[in-house]
Amino acid sequence: MGTFYVDIGVGHPHGGDLHPVSALVDTGATYSMMPASLLTTLRLTPLEQAGFRMANGSRVEYGIGEARFNIDGRERTCTVIFGPEGRHLLGATTLEDFGLMVDPTQPNPRLIPAAELLL
Fold this sequence. Notes:
Layout lengths: L4 E7 L7 E7 L6 E4 H6 L6 E6 L5 E13 L2 E10 L5 E2 L1 H6 L2 E3 L8 E3 L6
Parallel strand pairs: 2-7, 3-6
Antiparallel strand pairs: 1-2, 1-5, 4-5, 5-6, 8-9
């Protein structure tokens, strides 16, 4: 399954403007990650610090908080990691919160409602 980007909005969980970003859909990532500088601009602060093991085996620590996400006109408040610059990742828990999944039946990856997948 290839990687692909989707246009989403990210904002403060209590309202206000949404900041548009192009996020990499990363089903291997548990949580979504946005640059800490963007989240700080949106007046978000980490609720706690947590350690993570990266794909290369290294360990890092990032802040974790809550942000409002908009995907295709629908909004949810989801967990977000305060990450490094240039990291706009849409992780598995955010996709699950929206009831979305990557369509495995098409050669070009895209998000579909999980309920549409025929088993």
